[in-house]
Amino acid sequence: MKQTYTGKEKFMYLVGMFGQNIIYQVIAAGLISYYLGSVLYIPAATISVIIFIARIWDAINDPMMGTIVDRTHTKWGKCRPYLIIFPAIIGLMTILCFLNGRYTDADSTGKILIVLWAGASYIIWGMLFTVCDIPLWGITSLMTEDENDRSKIIGLARVAAGIGGLGTVISFIPDSFKGMFAGKYEAMIGIDGYTKQMAAEDTKKAAWIFTVIVVTVAATICFELAGLGTKERVPGNPEDKRGIIENFKIMFRCKPFRQILISGVIRSPLQLLMILAVPLMMYYYLDNDTANIGSNGLIIKVALIALMVFVPQFLAMILTPNFVKKFENKKIYNFYSIAGAVPYAAIIVIYFAFKGNLLSMPAVILTAICIGLATASMGGINVMQSIMIADCVDYEEYHSGFRPDGVFFSGQSFLTKLSGGIAALIQGIVYTVVGFSGANLEAINDKLRNGAHFFELDGGKYALGMFFLISIPIAVGMALSAIPTLKYAMSDKEHDRILESLVEKRRAATQEASPETEE
After folding, report:
1. Which pLDDT score, from 0 to 100, does residue 245 have?
2. How far apart are CA 182 and CA 203, in angstroms?
């Protein structure tokens, strides 16, 4: 009988996955997508450079961490030690990323220090996050020997991660806490040139920091459960002494894994939808003030868009493991890639069809439908990527005798961060071109506070930039990402044969060791 996880372990693992992804969104959707640019007013081009440098380092750091995980052999296993020790450290670093000055208020030296801390803290956070992200996904192939149970836990993990993706709404929360800090800064107006605008900006910054502390502490407690409540059942190999260079060779030698990796890189713009979802709602629909949500039926319209960002994604994550039982992995993966490109492309068509009237209910409904179909493809393809990487671990163990859980899932970690980096780079370029950046963004926010509408500013070029970002780059990336996997190197039948052989080999090794243990 194949060993597998208990219901309690599954629950603890999924709660940990939820907590981890809340923290990820605090940084990705909070810090990178909104806080650095719209609260601290660091120029978009500078933010893009910071992210680009971080992604270059990740290309080296992620496989290094994967190698360390694969060479870890303790009584807790090879993934659990990191999941027990590091979540609290990551939580602390998450909060520190937000403790920075406002760029437009600083002198030249202050601006340099602000940028240096923004870059250094983000890179350090990314390194710490990798220390846990690789083990968190890698442990899914160690908790069970049953392929169906593994597919289920990966599918559920993607659902838990998707629910954690609700952390993207963090941009909506700080306005609720501004009242706690407004009095302090309003009392300073008129002192040493302190203005009403400065008071408004400082109030918003304080509310953000408070929000981040509360959310991060709660998420960190959840994150810890993934290490404390799980057990590894597939044994590691203490003789595995492979180094980073050899693991790089393995990653590119394993053809199915290489195909998934290349496909994932091409699909990188996909992250733009999640990066832009909240800023788009905050600016286009609410003019960057959540107090506006009660007017003109906006609460229904924003709720509809928000539901279609998340619900179809969750449904696809839940249903995809069932599709795996009926259809070839390659066909499911490629279907999501090619069919998913269509709704993304349709978003820009809707923008031009309803230009100037996208707040009308027909436009909102059509936009929501396209976003729903788009996020469903995103959810499904994320599940398939994890399932197929886990299969590649079996493939490599069968051919080489070693399980590269850490190294191969470091590839997934790298893809997630690289995708975010490339998406942010594209975002930064477009924002710079249209002028939605730095001091000009500060001026835009001031106009919005004084009654202007975002979609009308400067002929609507800022709105066009946002809708372009969640449409054309993603559609192109999704369609092209199917090319590397059209002739995927491992069929489902071959993987079934590989897995059965590995289980039999482990049983034989256990039976041989038992008499010696008894003696």
Report:
1. 72
2. 5
Whole-number Å distance between alpha carbons of 222 and 95: 16
* Beta bridge mates, 316: none
| Burial of residue 365, with CB atoms counted within 10 A of its CB: 0-12 exposed, 13-18 middle, 19 or more buried | middle
Neighbours of 325 (CB within 10 A): 9
The rounded Cα 268 to chain-centroid distance in angstroms is 11
> Between the CA of residue 186 and those of 182, 190, 292, what are the distances in Å?
6, 9, 22
- Which residues are registered as beta bridge partners of 77? 74
Element (H, E) at 226: helix 196-228
- Structure tokens belonging to residue 59: 């290309």
Asked if residue 507 has pLDDT above 80, the reply is: no
Rounded Cα–Cα distance for residues 388 and 263 (Å): 12
pLDDT at residue 355, as a whole number:
79
**Structure-token match 């057990």, residue found:** 231
The reported pLDDT for the residue numbered 427 is: 86
Say if CB 108 and CB 101 are below 8 A apart: no
Which residue carries 């709704």 as its tokens?
A: 343
Q: What is the pTM of this model?
A: 0.74
Instruction: Tell me how far apart the alpha carbons of residues 23 and 219 are, in angstroms, rounded to a whole number.
Output: 6
Residues 140/9, Cβ–Cβ less than 8 Å: no
| Residues 344 and 470: beta-carbon distance below 8 Å | yes
Distance from C-alpha of 442 to C-alpha of 356, rounded to nearest angstrom:
23
301 CB contacts (<8 Å, ≥6 apart)?
285, 359, 361, 364
Question: Which of 142-146, 487-491, 514-518 has the largest mean confidence?
Answer: 487-491
Q: Which of residues 502 and 369 earns the better pLDDT score?
A: 369
Tell me if residue 195 falls in helix, strand or coil: coil
Residue 519 pLDDT > 50, yes or no?
no
Element (H, E) at 327: none
Rg (CA), the chain: 24
pLDDT higher than threshold 60 for residue 513: no
Report the pLDDT value the prediction gives residue 393, as an integer from 0 to 100.
86
Confirm if 77 and 236 have CB atoms less than 8 A apart.
Answer: yes
Whether the predicted pLDDT of 518 surpasses 60: no
Q: Is 401 left (phi over 0), alpha (psi -120 to 50) or beta?
A: left
